[in-house]
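SEQUENCE-TO-STRUCTURE ENTRY
===========================

Subject: a protein chain together with a token-level encoding of how that chain folds.

Sequence line: the amino acid chain in single-letter code, read from start to end.

Question of interest: how does this chain fold, as expressed in backbone structure tokens?
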Amino acid sequence: MRKNETYRVGLIGYGSWATAIAKVLTENDFRIYWWFRKEEDIAFIQQHHHHPRYLPSIHFELSKLKLTTTLREVVEKNDWIVIAVPSAFVEPILEEIPVSCWRGKAVVSGIKGILPGSNQLLNDYLTAKAGFPVEQYFAITGPCHAEEVASEKLSYITISGRDVERAQRMATRFHTAYLKTMVNDDLWGAQYAATLKNIYAIGAGIAHGLGYGDNFLSVYVANCAHEMDAFNRALCDHQQHPYRSRNAFASAYLGDLLVTCYSQYSRNRTLGTMIGKGYAIKTALLELGMVAEGYYASKCIHELNQHYQFPIPIAEQIYQILWEQRLPEKAIPLMAQSFV
């Protein structure tokens, strides 16, 4: 059996989630090639041993890091690649990597969204662009905030893959005393759920900002869970993607929805709260200062559903607020008409 240190691991991404993943992998004795956009970020880490902006409590052993601004090097020189970039920025980054570089690699997605240029999940994009085999692709879903991984609070992730045994082997690479791993074979459904929960968290924040209380939010989240599961089942059926192991109450689905709608660390809930309090959309995005995946995801899901026309009244009203200037105080009562 190969020791972890003999595996060659590439990490594409330099935000908080990528930083948390780097912590987990280096603590498990992996040596990682880590891609950054800016040379000055690399210089900072080499001098101070922590990220200049995200999760500065994480200190790295530099002997376990190869820091680079060359994307091709990260893919070519490694056995498996972790991609942890906000979904809105993935396609321009991947366009810099020659298709031939992906041959023989495994990919682990830490992306929680649909790629907006194509309205595809990352695995479908890689298959279409590079003929990437889906059997070599795995997806990480929550509930798991990077901040709690950094502080080593007990957390859980799910690794999804077409083959459960392969997913289990991949999951062991992320397992630590404070980060427990589970697996399922619902590759498409788990990723769509991770996309939708960010949209719903914005809605939860909007309701909170408008002054709705816990009673309303509990009914709201329950209906989001129902809508998410119904959409997932309908979409995966139509696309002929299996979902044998899906349990709508499992942590990758309901758990991730709950933490994203309620947590103090949720960027999407924070963005929604600002909008509910009267901030203009663009102002709220600028003041947030970080990427809220649900903003882009709402447009992707709306566009994707133009073809299918599945009933998603909650997600549709959030899209109308974010992209069509519908007033939040009018949209929330409209979505509530669908509650059960």
Remarks:
- The chain has a mean pLDDT of 93.
- The chain is about 50% helix and 10% strand.
- Residues 189-336 form a domain with the N-(1-d-carboxylethyl)-l-norvaline Dehydrogenase; domain 2 fold (CATH 1.10.1040.10).
